[in-house]
Amino acid sequence: MPVFTRFSESSQPGDGVSEAEEEQAGGQREGEREATAASGPGSAPSRTLLGHRLTRLRAWRTRYPRTARALRLAASALAAALVLGALLLPNTLPALKAVSFVRIPVEAVLGAVVVLALPRRPRLAAAVLYGLGLTVLTTVNLLDMGFNEYLGRGFNAALDWDLLPDAQAYVEDTFGGGVATAAAVGAVVLVLLVAAVMVAASVRLAGVLARHRVRASQGALAAGVVWVTCSALGLTLFGGPIASERGAGALRVHAQRTVESLRDEAAFAEQSKADTFGDTPPGELLPDLRGKDVIFTFIESYGRSAIEDPVMAPGVDRTLDTSTAALKKAGFAARSGWLTSATYGGSSWLGHSTTMSGLWIDNQRRYRTVSAGDHLTLTKAFQKTGAWDTVGVMPGVQKGWPEQKWYGLDQLYDAFDLGYKGPKFSWSTMPDQYALEAFQRRVHGKQRDKPLMSFVILTSSHQPWAPIPKTVGWDELGDGSVFDAIQKGGNKASDVITDTTKSREEYGKSIQYSVTSLTQWLERYGTDDTVLVFLGDHQPIARVSGNHASRDVPVSIVAKDPKVLDKVADWHWTEGLRPERDAPVWRMNSFRDRFLKAFGSTPHPSKG
Q1: pLDDT score for 231
Q2: Is the pTM higher than 0.70?
């Protein structure tokens, strides 16, 4: 006779049976009930098959009681570890240490109390919901880790889903379509696997607590008392509070972040309608730059760390100083300062739009709101005057780009319009040197009736910084095929992106390459009427720039005509291309208005 038939439902320890026998019997009864409930009425074949399997399982347990008990204990211990681990899991990689899990989570205590108070069916439902809650918590913590590692901020459930397609596109461009597909499928499978594991662990622990209700109640009470005491006294261990509410706190933060983001979206929509220069007549915009060829250039991931970090700075600073000297020899002078970017580690278009619009655009919803409206961008101000032809050169754009109208660009040259026949360099579709030479051939070097305003986005310093192009002779560029051997001989992206030290070193080299390409282009093709404004869009990812790096990026104005730099003398920027540490720091969204005013524009506010 199977051992479980010797006990009644009300058997308790001390009724003449061992604790091991009671646990075995309770587990068998619980499993039979839940299996029968799951099969439902009218499913006799399923119940028969399940009955055969349970009979075989009971026979195995009877034959090997010690092994069965050891397995049950191990499974219960693993379930407890998974639940506690999910409740205490940090949301940043630096905090992912063993000591972070030496805490008492209040969510575990409360979960035990709820389970002990419920009858069987509601208990099972509560355990499933608890497991799904742990799945959500684990998922947002893992997303936080990724976002903090790359973008220097946590995941925003209201805003960041829009970035996932861009992330997949980045992986596809960097590592290939197969890897991107595998990564997407793997992410979905991981979430489903976490859900299955967490629900199974929660259901198992609920069953264990129910089978040992008396001792479990005593344990929950003791844990609750300890938690309250530690919380009231503020007791800590290994630098953190013993009484933890990490899980509830994380979900609360995400909920608050979501609500605040939705409110912010509505407020920003109204804010973007007001514009200091919205009603300025064309004749009163940028009068002091008339006749000049003005070029606004963004260098990808060109951040303060490139100039000040001990690993990257020596090479980058040397390049900036050498380029300053070369430009001076060619008749150019430069002034440089700092701007605090609206983004960090990625989402370059947020930095571009913030600089050009004068609005703080730090998320995708804001970007979509403002780019769908008619708020005046700095580039569009040139178009509005009618005194300039306006053009965009964007080798990173590989699909339709409706923002062209908002930026006020008469013509756009994307990745497919520059005649490049050479290899891609990871995400970057072409080397900066080639993009600039193509800009010269197709646009800047041509005769025209009006001066030119150009908006140029350079991409060679985009992560993963492997392989990196090398500067070649400008007369050797041709259709870009000259870069074939350089691309093949460069580092593999997979070797660099997984190595922090290597990433920092190669990032520094990529900035040197981009700065050198741009300044050599200016030496070669710049005229007395050329005005170049170049800056970074954001700092590189946190793994490269550091966990507590600022959001500052360098910005420089270069010109031959001394009257141009005289207009910005009161900005007190540093002479040359390398801004001093104590040079002025402005928020990036202040640049548009400062630039317009410096060059003679008259404010005529629009109120929307």
Answers
A1: 87
A2: yes
